[in-house]
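Project channel, design review

CF: Before we commit to the Proteiniclasticum ruminis constructs, I'd like one complete example in the thread so the newer folks can see what an input/output pair looks like. Taking Nitrogen fixation protein NifU.
RD: sounds good, go ahead.
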Amino acid sequence: MDLSNLYTEVILEHNKETKNRREIEGYTHKERGHNPSCGDDITVEAKIENGIIVDLAYNGHGCSISQASASMMTDLLTGKTVEEAMELIRIFLAMIKREIQDLDYLEDVLDEASILQGISNLPARVKCAVLAWHTLKEAIEHKN
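CF: and here is what came back for Nitrogen fixation protein NifU:
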């Protein structure tokens, strides 16, 4: 299987995944993110206890890239400390901005989310890929 087929398969798989596409009862952090240029609209909810993200989910609608990225993010960051999550968000955003390009490192740290590295070559899709990540960062920084 070539890389573009793998990329497409992972995006489609995560776009269909619904285990983290839900609302969290008793969330501690919530933020809505919207991308007016393409219509992506997502709400991220997190339940953080003792500095650990014990539950993380998203809801809303958008293109397959925004939904798949949100799914990958929730899989990756659930169970992490807030500090670990913020560092992984920083690394993901740096990857998309091409500030970090070491694919082996990115695969080790970001797991499946590293497959979105190629989005940096598609400027119109960058906002789709980063929407959930920016939204969670805002939720953590500006606790609701």
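RD: helpful, thanks. The chain is about 50% helix and 20% strand.
CF: The first strand starts at residue 29 and ends at 35.
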